Amino acid sequence: MSEAADYSVLSAEFTSSYEPPDIESNYKGTMVVICIDPRVNSFVSSVLPYAVIARNAGGRAKAALRDIVVSQEIAVRDVAVVHHTDCGMCHFSSDSLRQKIKQDNPGDEVVAKSVEEIDFDHIEDLEGSVRSDVEYLKAHPLVKKDTKVTGWVYDIKAGKITRVD
Ligand SMILES: [Zn+2]
Fold it and tell me: Domains of the chain: which residue ranges?
């Protein structure tokens, strides 16, 4: 196993020029649900420096629900669901991922049972997944009714975001 990076050394240059964020002036009550893929990092930090960000594999709404409910208590009323092109969650199915994990752990019943309990919520159709996540949030009883929910696709190659719902 590789050794963990020493983040205190890696962040020294960042710390030397650091300015604390002015959240009071810039907070707009916006939240973005987006993938964990590192290719979206620069978009998030450049375009959304003061948004509340919920990240999970695929940027799926169900996995972000807990974060959305908590964020509504700090006045989030604008939630953008962003899925991106070439997302890893488009490249396998939940069943195929379960099978792979079981094959990697042959005969391990605890692993087999645990992996069956996870809904990986893979993506078959990028715009369709955005629309279904927007519908899910708009219909969810724990999402406040005055919340604006929008859906977007972020193009990794072009660095461009397009509204789909
Ligand atoms: Zn992704």
Answer: 21-87+123-163
